[in-house]
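User: My instructor asked us to take a sequence, write out its structure as tokens, and then describe one feature of it. I'm not sure where to start. Here is the sequence I was given:
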Amino acid sequence: PHIKVFQISEQPVEFDFHGKKVLFAHGDIDSPFLYRIYVSIIRNRFILYFLDKLNRLLKNMILNKLDTYLAKKEDCNDFENFRAFIEKRLAKKYSCYYFIEGHFHQNKTIIFEDFSYINIGAFACNQRYFSVESLQKLELTQEKYS
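Assistant: Let's start with the prediction itself. The structure tokens for your sequence are:
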């Protein structure tokens, strides 16, 4: 009940943290056109409802195929030239103190001239999750272990 979900079109979402501008995003911003179409289709509640009914009718065939595919997918790869990619993608577009996103799951912090970029790792890779708490002495980030 205390969770707010932001649409991709609303991202990055801006917050103030002790007078510092912080931007949060999943990481789908500036994605290629075909990927944006795919994401809008696969997240559509009517399509998801239809796929759920079809999957049940097919005795979980769709989910089983998806599980097989995802089991082969390597979520913990190191993204070569990640710093250059992020700099080209974000550096001249956003002005903030922190820019935090997931999507690429690199578990890295990169300090640029104008902001610090934090890319959150995938829980599947390191069994940790990212938490932001507004405590007086806490700067911003805290990784928690499951």
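For the description part of your assignment, you could build on this observation: The helical segments are 33-42, 45-57, 61-72, 82-90, 123-126. Try explaining in your own words what that tells you about the chain.
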